[in-house]
Structure formats: C-alpha cells, structure tokens
C-alpha cells in the first residue's frame, strides 16, 4: 500500500511537471512573433516618415520658367470666370493653332503622360465635334523643389513618357482640343507643392491671378535654345 502511494505520488509529480514545460516552450515560440511584429511596426513608421517628411519641407526657389511655346512667338494668355484661379489658357496670335509645338517650361522629370478624363471628338478635321471631360491628353513635369507644371488638351498622345528627363524647350506634345475644351489651346498651370500659384515667365508674373473676371494679355515667348 505504501509502495502504491509512493508510486502514485511519484507519478503525480512527473505528470504535473509536463504542462509547465509546455507553457515554457509556448512562451519561447511567442518571442519570434513579437519580434516580427515589432519589426513590421518599425518599418511602417519609417515608411510613413519617408512619405510625410518630404511633403512637410518648404518648397525650393521658383525655377526660371519660360512660356511653353516656341521662341519669339506672341501668344494670348487668358482666363474667364469659373476657370479657377491662376489657370492660364494660351492661344497663338498668328497662324494655325492645331498641332503647334508645346514645350517644357523648364527642365525636369515627366510624372504624368496620358489621358485626364476623356478625349471627346474635337480634331482639326472636326473642330466642332463632341467635347470630352477633363484635360484630355496631358503632361505633368516635376521640376524639383516641390515645383511642377501641367499641360492639358494636347492634340495627340504626349511625345514623352513617365520617368523621362526633359530639358527646357523640349517638345512634349502638340496643341489640341481634347477633353473639356471649346477650341484648340493650351491649358497651363504652375504648382508649388499642392498649391496652384501665379505663373511666372522669365521671372516676371503673368498677371493671371483670379477667375473673377475675364482677362486677356499678350506675351512673347523667351523659351529659346541655349546659346553655346
């Protein structure tokens, strides 16, 4: 009887020891998971910082933008009520508008080259065709320092691709009337960060600031080839 109790007691001590060892193993197995979660959290924080911090930095100095049209040409700069502040529409004063070269205002990297909205059906052969929506064929160029320019209503698919480096005066497209456009022209914007700002050409303000009233100005393009 004593032997049986002793064996029972010994068996009890052996079996009661096994669960505690199993819990110990489970605690050990949890540690890699906790480390993995910590690494994921740290990576997420770093990722957010990489995206947010550059956005919080102040913009760099304004590039010396030039008009996005050929050297020496006189163009009409205009806006109208409802067009949005700082938006500029450019129309040539002389010659055929359809297909005129649209040039980069300053050097930079193409970030968008495609379709904004829908194209519609206005072409040189059918100038009164149906309007599309938005900007039609368009291009956006990042000039660094949080500065960018946008070029809308191009006639055909852009002549540049996303990621391509362009220099001031490089042709990026042709003047057209795709998207929500009533006649062939170039809708042009200069942006600092998220904000549209008054366009400057050759360091001089364009004068197009508000869409509260119709404005029509004339400027001569200095977007000329560099003299070597």
Automatic annotation (TrEMBL):
Please give the SUPFAM superfamilies that the UniProt record associates with this protein: Duplicated hybrid motif
What's the protein name?
Peptidase M23B
Sorted alphabetically, the keyword list is: Membrane, Transmembrane, Transmembrane helix
Residues forming the M23ase beta-sheet core domain are 99-197
What would be one Pfam family of this protein?
A: Peptidase_M23
GO MF annotation terms? metalloendopeptidase activity
Region Disordered: what ranges? 197-228
Here the segments flagged for biased composition (Basic and acidic residues) are 210-221
Q: Where are the transmembrane segments?
A: 33-56
